[in-house]
Amino acid sequence: MRRAGIDTYRQPVLYLHRDCTVSRAEGFAALTRVSVKCAGQEVVAVLNIVTGDWLGKDEAALSDAAWQMLAPEPGAIAILAHAEPPRAASVLRAKVFGTRLNEAQFEAVLRDALAARLSDIELAAFVTVCAGDRLDLDESVALTRAMISVGDRIDWGSGPVLDKHCVGGLPGNRTTPIVVSIVAALGHRIPKTSSRAITSPAGTADVMATMTDVDLDIGALRNVVDREGGCMASGGRMRLSPADDILIQIERPLDLDGDGQMVASILSKKAAAGSTHVLIDIPVGATAKVRTMAAADAIARRLVFVGEAVGLRIGVHISDGRQPVGRGIGPALEAHDVLEVLRNSPQAPRDLRERALDVAGAVLELLPAIAPGSGRIQAEGALASGAAMRKFIAICMAQGGFREPGRARFVEPFVAPADGQLGCINNRQLARIAKLAGAPRNPTAGVVCTLREGDSIRRGMPLFLVHAGSKGELAYALDYARAHPDTLSLRESRS
């Protein structure tokens, strides 16, 4: 056995030379699923055939993922054989032909996925047959419970544990750090775990990572919450609904995110994190993730139904998703917006401040002791008094210390080609420009856009600023912007 030194993300991959006698004797072919046993451990890997001379005929190389799972000693000898069909294979076939699945069947699929017994092709088939409207309400409940059962779960003891989540699709909508700081400053528990970006320019964990440490284990997270009442950590080191992380990696390239799976994904992580009261923000807009009010209402009904079934009190906040929130799109740029709001700066983006107060108020009003309408008043008081900012710094210090977010090395405007009035903003294309500039891999990269629908535009004025860490990425992002002039569409000004 030897290490190939190839990153295949989660997929265990085995490499054999095309003239390997074991491969010929077993009848292995490219993409065969092979059982690799070594020193009492086993991993099922997908076979890739090597035609070059970097691998010997008596050697088997493992991708980084497979090597970490098997952890062989140097020079170890392995036994290779055709892998047994995964236990979930029959469940997958049943769902393909329209069978409704129960919790045990979903759990069988998820456990095989976690054990790497399912190939990406099989996982793609599972995601596909569960997409759209192919999961009814009872199946959404079953999938959510199965996702919870195959991971760890945090128990915070008695009393309410608040949380919030946004379904996404709206650049710059970074309310979480503000909301957590407000709610914790008012004396409530809100242990917030967030993911890093998968296809967006920034996730909450990416934004917080520009200001403090976010890669906490469960023990460290408990210490922070016990000390400050809240946290803003990445869920990457915690096994909270780990099967969801695998499914997400399949869903994103396929651009499949059905309501049933999305609800199971959100609520399984909330339940696993020990939350009891959860506010879900659903931005609605033509280029947001949820595009119509009818779709938002359908998601809201499913969230409430599934939430009640797994013991969560769910509140739904439907918000305006027509255009970006704040000014920055990208980890550090969004962090600067957050800090301006928390510091009550006169230059703080007003839309981000108002949206954060709306969400914080709705979170607080999930508690029975807080009357409707009073939650936002309490939230505004905590922000205006500086209590939220002090709590934010205290949480950062408990997580390892606070630091100011950085700035990009290269900044260039994208200017208006003509006079006019700003018509609509394409959220997806603006986010794409931020990603091409280097976000979130480069935390200082992204886009700054201060314009909003209806603003008057003059030829040559900046529509937005592109921030990048290198000239190449800057040019790449600007080339895309020039090729997509409808990112910020202009209409003729009315006289």
UniProtKB/TrEMBL annotation:
Any Pfam family: Glycos_transf_3
The UniProt record lists the keyword rRNA processing: no
One Gene Ontology term, aspect cellular component: cytosol
Record has Transferase as a keyword: yes
Pyrimidine nucleoside phosphorylase C-terminal domain boundaries: 421-488
EC numbers: 2.4.2.4
Known catalytic reactions: thymidine + phosphate = 2-deoxy-alpha-D-ribose 1-phosphate + thymine
GO BP, sorted A to Z: pyrimidine nucleobase metabolic process; pyrimidine nucleoside metabolic process
Assigned keywords, A-Z: Glycosyltransferase, Transferase
Molecular function per GO: 1,4-alpha-oligoglucan phosphorylase activity; thymidine phosphorylase activity
Superkingdom, natural source: Bacteria
NCBIfam families, A to Z: ARCH_P_rylase, PRK04350.1
HAMAP family, alphabetized: Thymid_phosp_2
The family this protein is said to belong to: Belongs to the thymidine/pyrimidine-nucleoside phosphorylase family. Type 2 subfamily.
The protein's name in its UniProt record: Putative thymidine phosphorylase
Organism from which the protein derives: Lysobacter antibioticus
Lineage of source species: Bacteria, Pseudomonadati, Pseudomonadota, Gammaproteobacteria, Lysobacterales
